[in-house]
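A quick aside before the break. I want you to see a complete sequence-to-structure record at least once, exactly as it would be stored in a machine-readable document. Don't worry about memorizing anything.
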Amino acid sequence: MGTEICELCRKGKIVKSAELMKFRQWSDKGYIRCSAMVMIGVCDRCNVRSLDASAEKILDEAFRREYDKQP
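That is the input. The structure line, written in tokens, reads:
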């Protein structure tokens, strides 16, 4: 497994860690408040932050879980 280089600055290395992401999303039931643990990559040089490729699916699942709890 190689070191991932930052696509923005092309000099820094991407350091990945799990972070809790809280968000709210509009739906036909009003705003739904959600939270999910996702992998975030941060460049050690320019500090750009990016979501891991699996994050979108995780966020969608968190929304669906909270949506289904609403009356």
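Two observations worth writing down. The chain has a mean pLDDT of 94. The first strand starts at residue 14 and ends at 27. We'll return to this after the break.
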